[in-house]
Write a structure and sequence with these properties.
- There is one protein chain.
- By secondary structure, this protein is mainly alpha-helical.
- The chain has a domain at about 120-150 and about 225-405.
- It contains 21 helices and five strands.
- The protein has helices spanning about 5-30, 30-35, 40-45, 60-80, 85-105, 110-120, 130-145, 155, 160-175, 210-230, 245-260, 265-285, 290-295, 300-315, 330-345, 350-355, 365-375, 385-390, 390-400, 410-415, 415-425, and strands at about 160, 180-185, 190-195, 200, 205.
- The strands form two sheets. The protein has a three-stranded mixed sheet. A two-stranded antiparallel sheet has the order 1-5.
- α4 packs antiparallel against α5, α5 packs antiparallel against α6 and α15 (about 330-345) crosses α19 (about 390-400).
- The radius of gyration is 23 Å and the shape is globular.
Length: about 425
């Protein structure tokens, strides 16, 4: 470590007091696991013919959650917020406290209010007149005429079960030196969920071989990679989790990684868009059954529709009006990541972009982390996702796309109207 000043001593003291508490709270909070519905709820739902609202009882350790909030608030009060690093640590403390406040509010409308504050929602605004829901509606309209690719018989026969899919991810992680285990989880509502060194896969889920690339870059090369990089930090090992405030940036980075790897398919983008719209429906009063039936209308299987509707209602109210808004943050996160990278690449901020891989962080963390890096306290990330490593390809991409808003696409469409009309007449599969 470079020469340490008296101010650096105070910074290190604050870090060394904060880090053990943050790590302990993160290990014991486990918000997503706490609001996971038991498997018997699924069995009862289908035994009732899918016609009754699920009845959920959450096993929340409220005493522990209250204790965490008190400890985090007490730590924050000891930090000197006139110092930028300690001010940042106070914000991180509030984030971990917010995760526990969410647990204390499970099953109430307050849970939804805290969720919006923490993760954003469909009515999160990008600027004065454009919201997350506006983007979802735009993408839905643009994808309306596109048919998802139907697997051939040979491809259908090659579908991977949960065990085979997990081994495919483990093998790919090993190829880049990332230690990883895969386990099959019977009650998981997400198809795949990444921890630091372990990937959980929903029992009974099946995967097209083409999904391996998309879910690898999302779950492994983003979520597991940033968690391992954070855990490897000598003085900031709490960056393995980062707290709920990092979720939107992390999901945005993961979806951007899919986009950069050309693995963001029509079907995948539609699922992300549909999640935003379902959260909005629930905010407007749609019940679990309304969401479930909407997903069936959109072509989901009964089990997939159950789990996707559960994702929206978990922790909130199945009667509607108070959803869990995390599923709306994927699209908002992608927009924020894409816009940040455009600006950062134009400004030559390679160092800041690389720091996005140093742990599970939010954009608000970059300035203090850069300061810590220059003090020799933060170390460079051990692993780098391919899109970060491929800086020479990233810069020309954003240099070109930054000009596209200057082009009037209506004029382009008019110029090529004959071929576009002919293509639409033939249809996407060659059927006249």
């Amino acid at each position: 470590m470079r020469g340490v000043s008296r101010a650096d001593d105070r910074t290190l003291d604050a870090l060394r007091r904060a880090t053990p508490l943050y790590e302990s709270v993160a290990a014991k909070t486990r918000l997503l696991d706490a609001i996971q519905w038991p498997e018997e709820v699924e069995r009862q739902f289908f035994a009732d013919g899918g016609r009754e609202l699920p009845k959920i009882e959450y096993a929340i350790d409220r005493d522990r959650a209250r204790k965490h909030v008190i400890e985090l608030d007490q730590l924050a009060m000891t930090l000197d917020v006139s110092d930028p690093i300690q001010h940042w640590l106070a914000r991180v403390a509030r984030s971990y406290a917010d995760g526990n406040r969410l647990l204390l509010a499970v099953g109430t409308k307050r849970f939804h209010e805290l969720s919006v504050d923490t993760f954003g929602g469909p009515r999160t605004w990008f600027d004065d007149d454009t919201s997350n829901l506006d983007l979802a509606e735009h993408l839905d309209a643009r994808l309306a005429g596109e048919l998802a690719r139907v697997p051939s018989r040979r491809e259908a026969a090659a579908m991977l079960d949960a065990e085979a899919f997990g081994q495919a991810l483990v093998k790919r992680a090993g190829a880049i030196g990332l230690p990883l285990d895969a386990v099959v989880d019977g009650g998981l509502c997400a198809k795949v969920l990444a921890g630091t060194n372990r990937i959980r896969i929903r029992a009974g889920a099946t995967f097209h071989p083409s999904e391996v690339e998309g879910l690898f870059v999302h779950e492994v090369e983003t979520h597991a990679l940033t968690a391992q990089n954070g855990g490897a930090q000598p003085e900031l090992s709490f960056l393995r989790s980062g707290g709920p405030r990092t979720t939107r940036t992390q999901e945005g980075l993961a979806v951007f990684a899919e986009l950069h790897a050309h693995a963001l398919t029509v079907a995948r983008m539609r699922r992300i868009v549909t999640r935003v719209r379902l959260v909005a429906m629930s905010e407007d009063g749609a019940t679990f059954l309304d969401l479930y039936r909407k997903l069936l209308e959109l072509g989901a299987s009964e089990r997939d529709a159950y789990f996707d509707a559960q994702r929206i209602c978990r922790g909130g109210l199945v009667e509607g009006g108070a959803p869990f808004t995390k599923d709306a943050c994927y699209l908002a996160g992608l927009m924020e990541v894409f816009n940040f990278l455009q600006v950062a690449a134009r400004g030559g901020a390679h160092e800041a972009i690389e720091l996005l891989a140093c742990g599970r962080i939010s954009f608000d963390d970059l300035a203090p982390l850069l300061a810590l890096k220059r003090k020799g306290i933060l170390t460079p990330p051990k692993f780098r996702p391919r899109w970060v490593a491929a800086w020479d390809g990233l810069l020309p991409y954003f240099a070109f796309t930054s000009f596209l808003r200057e082009i009037d696409l209506a004029q382009v469409a008019a110029r090529h109207s004959a071929i576009l009309a002919a293509t639409q007449a033939i249809g996407p599969r060659g059927d006249v």
